[in-house]
Amino acid sequence: MKLNQHLLNQRTSFILLFILICVWGTGLEAQIPSGGKKISDELLGLFFEDINYAADGGIYAEMVQNRSFEYDPTEQQGWNPFSFWEYMEPGYSYGRISVETSDPVHENNPHYMVVDAEFIGNYEEHEGKSGVGLKNLGFDGMVVKAGDTYNFSVFLKQLSNAPVTLDISLQGTDGTVLAENKIQSTSKDWKKYTTTLVPSQSRDTTHLVILATTKGKFAMDVVSLFPEKTFKNRPNGLRADMAQLLADMEPKFVRFPGGCLVHGDGLHNMYRWKNTIGPIEQRVEQRNIWGYHQTAGLGYFEYFQFCEDIGAKPLPVVPAGVSCQNSGGTWRIGGKGQRALPMDEMDEYIQEVLDLIEWANGPATSEWGSKRAAAGHPEPFNLEYVGIGNEDKMTSEFEERFTMLYQAVKQKHPEITVIGTVGPFLEGEDFEKGWEISNKLQLPMVDEHYYIEPDWYLGNQERYDTYDRKKAQVYLGEYASWGNKLYNAIAEAVHLTAIERNGDVVKMASYAPMLAKKGHTQWTTDMIFFDNTTLCPTPNFYVQKLFMKNSGDHYYENVVNFSKKDTTLAASTVMDSKTGDVIIKMVNAGKVPKSMEVNLSKFKNRVSNAKLTVLTGDPEAENTFDNPDNVVPVTEEYGVDKKFMYSAPAMSLSVIRIKTKT
To answer: Per-residue confidence at 125, pLDDT binned at 50, 70, 90?
Structure first.
């Protein structure tokens, strides 16, 4: 009897809970006004490509350049394994150095340095340290802060009978020792040694010095120096200020690792994800397609970890089995350099792509899931999207290989959304052929790219209005307006209102490129410029951030009224169902203020006190390293009525965020 009563009570509780959930759900839906349409809730994100020194020397926090002695002349004329290292013999010491390959730390990392400290000149007449060793110049120097901890590591192998004592120090360009510590090589086999350095002074240009202060011969490789204060304090992590700037944008996804970097400059240069995981000494370094070197220290694990850290979905892009059509510089003669993987290698390559999905999502007990777990992440990364191909020439070789890859992923992992590509331009032969392939295969999504003058964005606000909603959705993976002045940013804001309006067919969008280091740019239009000490976000960055932080999942027409014949004006209204906030974005790309009429009558529970954020200024204005805050948005309190007129300043993006009562 007691058991029956207990079961009855459980059943009653379940029914009551079910009723409450239904009532609550109905109430929530009632707060969403009718007349809107559901749009993508992951519309805006980031695109990362290792261009402009975005990774090594950029967001990847490694401070040692050419840490594994793998630089070579194919990357830049004059580069070699000794590049960015200087030989030292202070105190009238002498010895020899050489780069060798006979017995490396790992076969993927073939070069290493041998140091033979033949004589250490400990003369009274010499002030300072005596020894034989090397100085690393870093990426335009190394920035250190007084009191902060820097983690040093190196692989050493003892080649002489007696151990060698090494003095590890951070020194200013004037020779001032800012921090030092000692390690001693003792093993005849390769062994990793670590120590920490805490500078007594802050310096913007510092060098790392490794000095043998006792006689002996040793080999060294993978010389590394990281600030302990990386983003989220992760080892092998990211530059904290830069990563935080991106996190503060609140992107919904991050696409990586490129771009043209993905399909590579020839088949040997394709980006292979398996070469970028595991211990850094086992990763495969290679020439960067943009004319420098990539260590793969920022690899797939670090990309996925960053996405998780900032709450963004990972969107990896893999080659479609072909190289860039501009390989070998053939863009000069019309881009005839595409090469395709031999068909007898395609089964293995298809498995490589399938293994990526298992690595990201498989249980820790699976073959590739266990490798993710061994790196410190036993739980899956919850991968949902995989891009295949990037701006490829739509040849028969491409179509054949892409089709094989797509069908294999679809069959083995139907839960994964595959994103195809429709070439590098917004129209033309490759664009049309790419959409033809998409329609034939019934792809769920395709990746469009276009870089074009700002006036185009004003005159083509209806681009996606007529797209067939029964065909593939669009990921606008790369776009920009050829410039970083305020006018460029406002033109892009006009385009973003159109993307929001078409958020039912445009699933995702990301500005490109994202990062560019001062003095090392291969692409002049970028979202964030930086050097070792300063971040310089562009006006384009602030437009992206305002749209990302003020996104919604329902779109409403005719809330803002203005002359549709005036192509300098644009607006969009969205609602975020999670917060109930109504967000209005109004853009005026004209030279004088213009009025817009706002009608909020369909939003019944709004509050009158809103937040207004405005980005405005001279159309030619831009942010510089001397004045990085020249163009920034300003936020203030703003009162709203059911109906009101808003005077949009000249050359402006205005965002009004309105709370609603729950």
So the answer is: confident
